[in-house]
């Protein structure tokens, strides 16, 4: 076997391989530059968006109350899906943190909203009732997501997706 002699590199010149590697890294550097923090005020909320976000907090508050009531009335279902209520409460807390004008503690379980009120008595099919409540809230959050940009849109979208994920557990 014969080996090729290495070509001498002129002083101050880049070897061809180094130049190709550097050229390949340019798109990565551009992508990293795009991941910087947005300028101040880029994710500002309009008064209409504040109202919409407050409405979503109310929807989630109603969901927490409904899930709590359904699971209290059906202990066997509560044992089968223990994380549903905790997830709904955590989502409510995150929504309240994102809503600048909404006050109240994350564990609040009452409030007014567009969701129907929690059942007062045990329901015939608690699993179906829970699926209905989760679907209604997920639909509401997904629709509201379209009215926002940035972090709040991502939050509403992730909450809607999380609620839909609970539907799979309840199937």
Automatic annotation (TrEMBL):
Query: InterPro entries of this UniProt entry?
Result: TAT_signal
Fetch the PROSITE patterns from UniProt.
PROKAR_LIPOPROTEIN (PS51257), TAT (PS51318)
Instruction: Provide the leader sequence positions.
Output: 1-33
Keyword annotations of the record: Signal
Composition-biased stretches (Low complexity) = 98-124
Span list, region Disordered: 97-126
Full protein name? Uncharacterized protein
